[in-house]
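In practice, a research group might receive sequence data for several interacting partners and want a quick structural hypothesis before committing to experiments. The following worked case mirrors that situation: the sequences arrive first, and a predicted assembly follows.
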Amino acid sequence: MAKAIGIDLGTTNSVVAVMEGGKPTVIINSEGNRLTPSVVGFTTTGERLVGQLAKRQAVLNPENTISSAKRFIGRRFSEVQSEIKNVPYKVVAGSDDAVRFLVMGKQYPPEEVSAVVLRRLVEDAAKYLGEKITDAVITVPAYFNDAQRQATQDAGKIAGLNVLRIINEPTAAALAYGLDKKGNETILVFDLGGGTFDVSVLDVGDGIFEVHSTAGDTHLGGDDFDKRLVDWIAEEFLRDHGIDLRKDRQSLQRLSEAAEKAKIELSGALETNINLPFVTANASGPKHLEMKLSRAKFDQLTADLVERCKGPVERALADAKIQVAQLDEVILVGGSTRIPAVQTLVRRLTGGKEPNQSVNPDEVVAIGAAIQAGVLAGEVKGVVLLDVTPLSLGLETLGGVMTKLIERNTTIPARKAETFSTAEDNQTAVDVHALQGEREFAKDNRTLGHFRLEGIKAAPRGAPQVEVTFDIDANGVLTVTAKDKETGKEQKITVAGSTQLSKDEIDRMVRDAQSHVEDDKRRREEVSARNGADSIAYEVERQIRDLGDKVPANEKARAEQLITQIRELVKNESTDVPLMRTATSDLQQLAHALAATTQTQGSPSAAHADGANGAPIGGAEDVIDAEFTQTK
Amino acid sequence: MRPSDINGKIIVDVQPPEIEIVRALLRSEHDMYLRSLADFDNYRRRVERDTAAAIERGKRSLILAFLEVVDSFDRALLQVGDAAAPLVEGLEAVHRKTLALLQTQGITPYNSVGELFNPALHEAVASVVGTQYAPGVVADELQRGYKAGDAVFRPALVRVSQQS
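A structural hypothesis for the assembly, expressed as tokens:
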């Protein structure tokens, strides 16, 4: 089935997103960026440059480089006089008072220029997805009239797209936050982009959005904040060095980049350094720019810009006849809403409500459009909804530890097997204690069931191989099987409803685990140290027994002394972990020395105490140990 | 099919036999199974691609920031002119070492001055008149451009010659 994409066709930049595997993803363009400048450049050689490339040649070719086409789309020539003053290219009246861009003697309607941008976005999406794209949802500002919407749709058609729907930008933002699934709500969308500011108040009920009011400022955005900073830095430098950096294109370019970077940094930090070595030079030599800028200073410099956002918010609320207290949700859209002072203003104007801002504000509109496109294209149909295990599943191993086989949030059906062994010599049965939960220790988790596998052949500990399999089907029915690989003997239990815990209970168990994480970790380390110590003591004992007289008497005495010490420490409830680790390490060294002796003397027996990180199954006398080898 | 005789006419029961229902069910289940296999395969490929891309992005942002330091170096060396003082020689050696380090990461500078302006390689900062170059040719370079292999890693910032 062909994919449908969502396009945020912006004034400054455009973004395209798509549903992939049920999740919206922003598509990276051919230059490796998530934003594509909405700019088209017509060159003398007849080429049409789009996006970043068009922007790079704009200063050389200002008359033939069209940016902000969105400000003109679907409008009458008589309506756009104030916009014409702000653009370096020629805008003329076509037939019927239609807006036309005059480029190298040829007239282009704005929708044709937007179509060029759309085509590029679609090509990049097709390359990314590896399939042809024909269907799309395109967003427009909520205040767009029928003519502007129709022209946007036409732009899509010119670009060869089947426009599934034109949706409002604030509606798309609300969709990205899944607000269509809520009951009746009143939402305020605050959208401060690169060059435009829009406020919308909408209602949602039964998945249907209704825009009640819109307000805004068509010439207010992040670029204004950058300009304030550039001017301030330049003035400071002028005062100190007598040179106006704005007069030199190169210096200005570097200054603009540094200002934008500083602005972005001040959204996360309280202070930033602006550092431009060799920014310019005069007769006395090179000059460097180095200054500190605090967020407080930045806020002071841009206070009036932030304040300009206030009027439209109040107007939108008044027009919608909505009291601040009636707002259920506030959504932030546009990169400039990352500025802390802007967020503070929004909170102040909306009665202290915490705004939705978890989705990247540059991408939230495109993501909402992609979600809408996914629904319209039937992406959701035919998809099997798979459940996940709400909590981890595992079994009890040596020291009362829970060893997880299936981690929480694993998509089911799922199956996982691991091989365990015995904890004692000649152990003929193992207890399998199946558990559910996030805590490190069995006793803190929920018991799903117990069973015992008997008839294991008597063997030294660690030798028998018991494969334990956890299999959970699509209905959440868990089957735990233990199988002795040597005899083929098998036991199993089936537990239904392991996924049907109440949400509260799951949340409680997960929270519980989080609050005990440090404590559990410490206890688990203790158990692991104890198991390691016990295991090495066992190994060395066996080694000495195997080697018999070949072990020098002094080494034998030393080993026995260490083993006794370790056994004491292991038995002791309140073990000194560092002391046990030291003893373990001493004994390990001795084991290596013994192994070396064996080899030089050509003995066939060498220690195979390879990191016995023992984990026993069950707590009874004849429990399983698990020196676990993972099955593939 | 169960034909039955009603008023002398043969009526065929239209209800498909159970085996047909089961077959249809099996086909749809098998289709779903194949779809999920395909979904997983696509997912695996996407994860591989996204992981590689994420590594590249991480490396890219680090190198881009590093290039700003190299740019400052370039500007400093421009200021010292032709003076061959030992300190300058030392700085030049450090500069060469820096470029060599970039080269190990596949990042190499490219020359722009004297070349025809090409937006794929160059970002125009301004146009200049009265240079030795023909119109449309890069007259000077304000910041070097770098390539990663054959692809442009960071375009050069340039001034372009224009007719006076």
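Before designing any experiment, note the following. The first helix of chain A runs from residue 52 to 56. Residues 476 and 497 of chain A are 6 Å apart (CA to CA).
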